[in-house]
Design brief:
Blueprint (H helix, E strand, L loop, with lengths): L3 E4 L3 H18 L4 E4 L6 H14 L7 E4 L1 E4 L10 H8 L11 E2 L9 H7 L6 E4 L21 E4 L2 H7 L13 E4 L2 H5 L4 E5 L5 H9 L18 E5 L3
Parallel strand pairs: 1-10, 2-3, 2-6, 3-5, 6-9, 9-10
Antiparallel strand pairs: 4-8, 7-8
Length: 236
């Protein structure tokens, strides 16, 4: 199956459609294993998942989640910008998931260790990704090998600038390193959903559309190596 592109009217429609796919996954397989993103791309998806749980009682008690990435050595002043805090505030605190079943990469889980942990739960059923303006997925920056496993990343200036808005608009407050799952692990997911909203993401999506194979300078193109990818955009 080729990559499928789903153009939506706006971010709200994307959030509803992607959330519904997660809800269907959890209902059909209560012990689903999910790979989750942070940032602006999945926020409305998580909002709708929470709304569904509150209104319809979808049960998340047997679900296990793995996050794509986490900062290293974040300034204590900005712990609210950690991805653990983001996930708790936007999703985990509002559904009946067990926090002990939510995992984040850290420097002790580099190499194959994070994947081994994922494999102990029979692998990822469904993943959600965002994409950076330079085509990065998770913190797999341009130049990342498609065989990369969980690794420590020296964040590019463009990525740190993009995140400076969360750190008092000062790049000096943004951590210089993060731990990220590799492209190899992302491609092991059974199904992948990628959300790209706003004109700034258009070049990355266009590059994905215009290529047929993996381009190391555009990590998003690793998705050509996967059999089941849905790309949701709010632009043509």
């Amino acid at each position: 199956m080729a990559i499928q592109y789903i153009q939506c009217k706006n971010e709200a429609e994307i959030g509803m459609k992607v959330a519904q796919l997660f809800i269907q996954q959890v209902k059909s397989k209560p012990n689903s294993v999910l790979l989750l993103a942070t940032g602006s791309s999945p926020i409305l998806t998580y909002f709708n998942i929470v709304k569904d749980h509150q209104n319809n009682g979808t049960d998340w008690s047997k679900v296990t989640t793995f996050n794509l990435d986490e900062y290293i050595d974040i300034n204590p002043k900005y712990t609210q910008q950690s991805y653990l805090h983001f996930m708790n505030e936007n999703l985990f605190n509002h559904i009946n998931i067990h926090k002990s079943n939510t995992y984040f990469p850290n420097p002790s889980l580099v190499g194959d260790k994070y994947q081994q942990l994922i494999n102990s739960y029979t692998g990822i059923d469904l993943a959600i990704l965002g994409v950076g303006v330079n085509g990065h997925i998770a913190f797999n920056e341009p130049g990342t090998l498609i065989t990369a496993t969980t690794h420590i990343v020296n964040l590019t200036e463009s990525s740190r600038l993009a995140n400076a808005r969360f750190f008092d608009n000062d790049i000096n407050n943004v951590p210089k390193q993060a731990v990220s799952v590799g492209l190899k692990e992302i491609l092991h997911a059974k199904k992948i959903l990628l959300v790209a909203t706003g004109e700034a993401k258009k070049p990355a999506i266009n590059h994905l559309k215009q290529t047929q194979d993996f381009d190391q300078q555009w990590p998003i193109t690793a998705l050509h190596k996967h059999h089941d990818v849905l790309v949701f955009t709010d632009f043509k």
